[in-house]
Design a protein that fits this description.
globular, Cathepsin B, Chain A, 2 domains, alpha+beta, 14 strands, three-stranded antiparallel β-sheet, single chain, OB fold (Dihydrolipoamide Acetyltransferase, E2P)
């Protein structure tokens, strides 16, 4: 009798053991072959051929498609029902102050040059074949509001860089922001926030992952809360499995438990924060065009919260940085001639353009060209 559901994602033939099914389980990447398994076809093996179900996706419904901006000087649309504070806590968001960049720089390879960058680049459509290397979008506010954007921007960018460097090869990397919330103490001066859901410095992520490594989301699912007030992270804060009944949850890698989870490390890291935003914009283009997405920071405004599509252009002059995002591309709009950044937010796919946005480039809009961070994956 069947007692477990999984997905069957392929089949093949082994020279020694014959035909097999390729299965994806839901027990984390530390189980089996990165969360997958091969099981012999035929012979009623585990009852896998007794029953199956399937479904076919339908095209996106018209109601879900974002409308194009109207023909006017405004190049983006907003939702008037979205009020200030729907996605962002203006009262408690930290306003980071300048810090020494020494710990945030480990440069071994030559830095990319602006003159070598392509005219446009987007991680969702790379090369002539328009291959998508973007990792999944996230929502930092589920199950509760959490000011953890500083973990989402850098990890999303690094996920993409792993995918690019490995040319999309399985298994894809999907780093756990919760591990960083659990294990990364805030700077001693608290200038970037009080740590975890109370804010942190995205530039600290690269050095931390270089020293300690990051784990897959299935090792430490996002919980949107500070699990350890002192950030003295026990093994249970890195990779955990919860057993049936009253056995409870236990750290993976402990005696009598599997130690089959992978850690992902960074090789190099750096910060783009010259005093001239125009110079920063050129170096950001060079870095993205050569090596992929980077993390950055912006000033959130009520109009940005209400954004639904198009090329956003702030008119308030806000440049007080209080929110981290990943910058995953750049381009120029053919109709308006406006240069823009492609950014990925961490407010869910119901915000913006399926969780993404375009922000005007070259004018330091929302302060996006004040500072940015990059890391390279260690393969």
């Amino acid at each position: 009798m069947a007692n477990h559901i999984l997905s069957i994602v392929g089949w093949g033939r082994d020279a020694t053991h014959g035909d097999y099914w390729l299965l994806r389980n839901s027990w984390g990447t530390y189980w089996g072959e990165g969360g997958f398994a091969k099981i012999k076809m035929g012979g009623k093996n585990l009852g896998v051929e007794n029953s199956c179900s399937w479904g076919a996706p339908t095209p996106m419904q018209a109601a879900e498609v974002r409308a194009e901006p109207p023909a006017s000087t405004k190049t983006y649309t907003t939702d008037a029902t979205v009020k200030a504070g729907t996605y962002f806590d203006y009262a408690s968001a930290p306003r980071p102050k300048a810090r020494s960049a020494d710990a945030h720089v480990r440069v071994v390879s030559p830095l990319p040059k602006y003159e070598d960058a392509p005219a446009s680049w987007d991680v969702r459509a790379v090369g002539d074949a328009k291959v998508n290397y973007a990792s999944p979008s996230r929502n930092q506010h589920i199950p509760v509001y959490c000011g953890s954007c500083w973990t989402h921007g850098p990890t999303s960018a690094l996920n993409d860089r792993f995918n690019l460097a490995r040319k999309g090869a399985w298994p894809q990397v999907f780093l756990s922001p919760q591990q960083l919330i659990n294990c990364m103490p805030p700077p001693a001066d608290k200038t970037q926030g009080a740590g975890g859901c109370l804010g942190g410095d995205p530039a600290d992520v690269g050095p931390f992952l270089g020293a300690h490594g990051g784990v897959h989301e299935t090792c430490m699912n996002y919980q949107a809360k500070n699990l350890y007030a002192d950030f003295k992270c026990p093994a249970e804060g890195v990779c955990v499995n919860c057993e049936p009944g009253r056995k409870g949850c236990h750290a993976m890698g402990q005696p009598a438990l599997q130690n089959n989870f992978t850690k992902y490390y960074t090789e190099e890291w750096g910060r783009i924060n010259a005093t001239d935003p125009a110079a920063n914009a050129q170096q950001m283009v060079a870095e993205i065009g050569a090596r992929g997405p980077i993390s950055g920071s912006i000033c959130v405004t009520p109009e940005f919260e209400a954004y639904t599509g198009g090329i956003f252009e702030d008119t308030t002059g806000c440049t007080s940085l209080d929110h981290s995002i990943s910058i995953a591309g750049y381009g120029t709009d053919a109709a308006t001639g406006k240069d823009y950044w492609v950014i990925r937010n961490s407010w869910g796919t119901y915000w913006g353009e399926q969780g993404w946005a375009r922000v005007v480039r070259g004018t330091n809009n929302l302060g996006i060209e004040i500072t940015a961070e990059w890391t390279t994956p260690k393969l």
